Amino acid sequence: MDKKDIYEHLANIYLDASLKKKKKSKKDFKFRNLLIGNLVVLVLVFSSFSFFDVYKKSKLKAASQVALVIYPDIAKINFNFDPAKKEIYSLNLKNLDLGRYKALAFSVKKINYKNNISLRVEFGNSFNEKAFVYVKDIPAKWNEYVVKFSEFKGISDWSNMSLLSFSVEEWNSKEKQDVVYLENIRVVR
Q: What is the pTM of this model?
């Protein structure tokens, strides 16, 4: 054997060994990627099942609650008690028959988290009967409240309702100014 044959033989041994290592590492890499891809798909599938389960439960809960939406948008009570003693947001119910419903539901929040606010909720009917309740400790994050009609003691006939109002009174707020937001005002059965 001459030098050239020896070099070719060593090159073949070296190249064959290095190619085998590269092929093996590519196979490992493909297997690892396939395994990771499958795990990602499984995680996405299971998380989507849990998401749809939560979504279905919330839809069922909403569907089981028969409601009449009085005001779907966001209402704002922006108060500053330097000149005023009370700020009111009122809705004209136009002699609405609420006799088949059992409660008032709404979401509410305030801006100033340090402020301690109680919200006065008042109903009035066409027979000049009025009744109110206080919703205490309005939070700084949206919170859902449900107030049963039985808590409004001064109303005997819910068939001709004329007024629904929300008010913040000076003596029911720690701070002189703040903003209270109301949303999704409705009556429920």
A: 0.63
Best CA proximity match to 90, nearest among 121, 118, 127, 119: 121
pLDDT at residue number 177: 83
Per-residue confidence at 26, pLDDT binned at 50, 70, 90?
Answer: low
Q: Which residue has the higher pLDDT, 117 or 30?
A: 117
Q: Compute φ and ψ for 37, nearest 5 degrees.
A: -60, -45
- Higher local confidence (pLDDT), 161 or 16: 161
Q: How many CA atoms lie within 13 A of 187 on its CB side?
A: 16
Pairing label, strands 103-110, 177-188: antiparallel
3-state SS of the chain is CCHHHHHHHHHHHHHHHHHHHHHHHHHHHHHHHHHHHHHHHHHHHHHHHHHHHHHHHHHHHHHHCCEEEEEEEEEEEEEECCCCCEEEEEEEEEEECCCCCCEEEEEEEECCCCCCECEEEEEEECCCCEEEEEECCCCCCCEEEEEEHHHCCCCCCCCCEEEEEEEEEHHHECCCEEEEEEEEEEEEC
